């Protein structure tokens, strides 16, 4: 629902706009005013998305009223004088309705407003992270790393070192916690405060240590039960 108000110093014209708003399914009339001065304090306290504002009003005309607002809602102007059309669009009005206004014309302008709100209030679709690779910042460069190429990840205080199968390790300024959260893929498991391993790359386990070539990675007590479940789940006896 688009929350809106109507402002017109002519009671009959205001009643007509009110009735049009009430019969339009996606509009919600919060309040109507016969003077823009009455609407100022209301706008300061209420979240209004759209205003139907007459231009020709005493004391303060609709154009000057809109220009005076620091954070104006979107505007659809109503007036009996066509010469204000250009100036109306200069204040970023969504549309301009020339009196007398029939409902078809009103609805067309309201649909234009709805399209504007649908476009600007739509949340961008979340881009899903790719499960095959990561981008890592290393030595002022952004490097793409295939997850399948990672053997294990070593924590080094503020840095981590990513050990790869056929390339030299890559260093990056990142915490182990952040890296672990990124590697939600089930093929990776943290086995120690300082190590995350690619389970697909494990070939040898010796005395509760994972062996990668000549590197022995300990499995700490904190992660021992989870790692043992992985072994038992894939153990052939």
Can you describe what's shown?
- With 237 residues, this protein is α/β, with parallel strands linked by helices.
- 31% of the residues lie in helices and 32% in strands.
- It contains seven helices and 15 strands.
- The chain has helices at residues 11-22, 36-45, 62-68, 85-90, 103-121, 176-182, 221-233, and strands at 2-7, 27-33, 50-54, 74-79, 95-98, 133-138, 141-146, 150-156, 159-164, 170-173, 188-192, 195-198, 204-205, 209-212, 215-218.
- The strands form four sheets. Strands 2-1-3-4-5 form a five-stranded parallel sheet.
- β3, α3 and β4 form a beta-alpha-beta unit.
- The radius of gyration is 32 Å and the shape is rod-shaped.
Average residue-wise pLDDT: 88
Which structural class do the helices and strands define?
alpha/beta
What would you call the shape? rod-shaped
Strand neighbour order, sheet with most strands: 2-1-3-4-5
